[in-house]
Specification:
alpha/beta; TIM Barrel; two-stranded antiparallel sheet; 12 helices; 44% helix
Length: 341
């Protein structure tokens, strides 16, 4: 099992706690990235949103791609999984940027491809917003262009959404045959796209049994296509304490959220713009990406057992959110990662 974490580019993950003591600024993310390598973490996911959907639209939110380039220059080992939304990026220009960051990092860049869901953000940034299945059709063309530009020169393509003529991209990425591509989604359109064009499947938090069913589904789709096995990752919010009483107290603190919270309107747009397998509760909303459903909450032994259960159903890596991020990652490293190692 590998352990990763979400870089807190939004200043936190909790809807009801205004100040989580992790500023959305370069000083904090630089320190966290460097310290995470010392703590034994393997990868970090750098999310991409121009507005802050957790703390509210008026709150700061770091740009994913310039942040990734800067982190690449000040770290040595950690994988940089950068989210990218095709509707916000020309495929050829993004392929060029990504190749450059791949060289800065020494081949550590990977992409997490996200089909946009936030209609208001698109309007405010002058980006055309499409319906769910249309976004995935666009993403399929986008991925085809990026993949080919990373592998060959003099590439041309004409489709419904994009056109490139005799395109050249140099230098090519260090990663061969190209940087690793992750994506997530629970709709039929998403799963078909991921199975056919990506290398890894990143899932929102859920119980191991549900995660296992999704993994088996994607594995079967890959086998039908004659493609190699994928990697599978799950989002999880972690709470590690010495007693169950302490765990319950922390859960009560972070889930005391109301529908009037600053990011609730954005959350409602996320629900409207996605196709999920399960309904979500207000408690799910209190923590980003359904992280509490993964159940990485308990004593060190309980959390280690839960990690083993995820590994048994085929999970390759966990992406942690916690608050405050650095202090809780240090606790998780000492209590779980180092013990399992």
């Amino acid at each position: 099992m590998k352990f990763g974490y979400w870089m807190p580019v939004f200043g936190g993950w909790l809807r009801n706690v205004e100040d989580e003591h992790m500023q959305a600024d370069w000083a904090y993310v630089k320190n966290l990235a460097q310290r995470s390598e010392e703590l034994g973490y393997d990868l970090t996911l750098i999310a991409e949103l121009n507005l802050n959907d957790i703390k509210g639209e008026e709150a700061p939110s770091l740009d994913a791609w310039s942040t990734a380039a800067a982190i690449a220059a000040v770290t040595q080992r950690i994988e940089l999984m950068v989210a990218v939304r095709p509707t916000f990026h020309s495929p050829a220009l993004l392929a060029k940027q990504a190749s450059n960051i791949d060289h800065i990092s020494g081949g550590r860049l990977t992409l997490n491809v996200v089909s946009s869901w936030w209609q208001d953000e698109a309007k405010k940034y002058g980006v055309h917003f499409e319906q769910h299945d249309d976004r995935y059709a666009r993403t399929a063309e986008w991925l085809h262009i990026v993949d080919n530009l990373w592998k060959q020169d003099h590439f041309s393509f004409t489709g419904k959404y994009y056109r490139v003529e005799d395109s050249i991209l140099q230098p090519k990425p260090i990663s061969k045959p190209r940087p690793f591509l992750y994506a997530g989604g629970e709709s039929e359109a998403a799963k078909e796209l991921i199975a056919s064009q990506c290398d890894g499947y990143v899932m929102h938090g859920d119980e191991p049994e549900a995660i296992g069913r999704r993994i088996n589904d994607l594995r079967a789709r890959r086998e039908r296509l004659g493609l190699p096995p994928m990697k599978f990752g799950v989002a999880a919010y972690s709470i590690v304490r010495n007693s169950e009483q302490e765990v319950r107290a922390e859960l009560a603190r972070i889930t005391d959220v109301k529908g009037s919270a600053a990011g609730y309107k954005n959350y409602q747009q996320w629900l409207a713009g996605t196709q999920l397998e399960k309904q979500v509760s207000l408690e799910d909303y209190s923590v980003s990406n359904r992280g509490l459903r993964s159940g990485l909450t308990g004593t060190p032994d309980q959390v280690a057992e839960r990690v083993a259960t995820f590994e048994a159903v085929g999970v390759d890596f966990l992406l942690l959110q916690c608050s405050p991020q650095l202090e809780e990652m240090e606790r998780f490293s000492e209590a779980v990662i180092r013990v399992l190692a």
